[in-house]
Amino acid sequence: MNIVAFSHYKEVASEDLKDSYAIVIDLLRATSTMIWAISNGAKRIIPVEKVEEALLFKKLDESVLLGGERGGLKIDGFDLDNSPLSYKSEVVSGRTIVMTTTNGTRALKKAAGAKRIFPGSFINARKTAEYIIKEALCHDIHTISIVCAGTEEKFTLEDILCAGYFVHLLKKHFPDAFLDDLSIASYELYKKFENDPHEILKYSYHYNNLKKLGFVSDLEFCLKKDFVDMVCEYKNLVVEKV
Amino acid sequence: MNIVAFSHYKEVASEDLKDSYAIVIDLLRATSTMIWAISNGAKRIIPVEKVEEALLFKKLDESVLLGGERGGLKIDGFDLDNSPLSYKSEVVSGRTIVMTTTNGTRALKKAAGAKRIFPGSFINARKTAEYIIKEALCHDIHTISIVCAGTEEKFTLEDILCAGYFVHLLKKHFPDAFLDDLSIASYELYKKFENDPHEILKYSYHYNNLKKLGFVSDLEFCLKKDFVDMVCEYKNLVVEKV
């Protein structure tokens, strides 16, 4: 097994992911929010790149909810922001949500070259890794790609720590896997801050930005591991429960 | 002070380095080799991107030495490979060397947008950091950029560890510096493997590649710290002693 990582979505050329299963991580907060929304009963998420696309969906079908952010904050005319805590059962259950975020939705689209695409987060990492391992073995897949969304096309610590957790989970099953340099680095960073990721993230850019915007509870939420027992997949332009 | 890092030369847009001093690192081996050659008395290094450019220089001036690599090995018709250990005093003293390597020479050229550019390596990091700190304070420079060459346009562990050592040296003088996420990550990785970088590098791609090609002594050499007491600068397309 090969495990390769990308530090932001712009690094990924479609050819890079060919024949691989891809895990896409925008820990703070797009993929965490999508996973939590689906876990709370949302029927599907449709990630789109532009605000106008989202508004067009709503025009065609009034029942959809619009969610996402620009500059970390709710978009004018949208139903929901990008905080996972806004996506409560009573709000999202049974609904289709059209989402647009700065990095996460773009990263999912950039991963289109992969055989299968799984939005990932600390909140459901173990279940997702287990599923991917099983499926990869069944279907003779030799590469798992971990695509960090990054922030503004830059290396982003929280995504890398979560990538490192996935490497940790995958390595357990594939102890002889080839890891590329970024997978090794993310694994070592994860192990160093395994017990308290806030210890390093308190110095990082995007984490601090969200803190300043008042989303402290989101930071706690997105860094908690494995309390969601469900796997999501991005397929035919839609995120759904596997 | 701001300290920002780039994981490979393709990540750098010329605008990114504006008004900053840049440290360019291709630890294994281009910048280590350049620094060692100059330290052994070479007059100057002219980094060029293509083999044909190097051959043209030789045609114009027979006294120049041609050095560098493709696939880690000496280029046909060249005088020297890319091993620092080939650049002995008796070979290089007083000479102009035209060098072309896969990543390092490109990274130096990609850093052209910076105010000043310093090739960096473990072998002269302390002296280089001290010089940059002094000059940055004198000339009111607010950003130090660390440009890792990377390998084949990918994140490369040995360059990141060396970047982390530079962050460590710069932080000592600027304890309140703003570090971007990659600088923080490189610093933490450096600190984790400070006493034995081989412990992590033995899993990394380029390090292993050089090992397989028989350059074990180069790996030892390039990871030794601060035995060169001299600073190099890349200016007007030429690397010289400051």
Automatic annotation (TrEMBL), chains A, B:
Enzyme class: hydrolase
Family in the record: Belongs to the ComB family.
Keyword match Hydrolase: yes
Assigned keywords, A-Z: Hydrolase, Magnesium
Catalytic activity: (2R)-O-phospho-3-sulfolactate + H2O = (2R)-3-sulfolactate + phosphate
A Pfam family matched in the record: 2-ph_phosp
Signal peptide positions on this chain: none
Cofactor(s) demanded: Mg(2+)
Keyword Magnesium set for record: yes
Entry superkingdom: Bacteria
InterPro entries assigned to the protein according to its UniProt record, in alphabetical order: ComB-like, ComB-like_sf
Protein name as annotated: Probable 2-phosphosulfolactate phosphatase
E.C. designation(s): 3.1.3.71
Species: Caldicellulosiruptor morganii
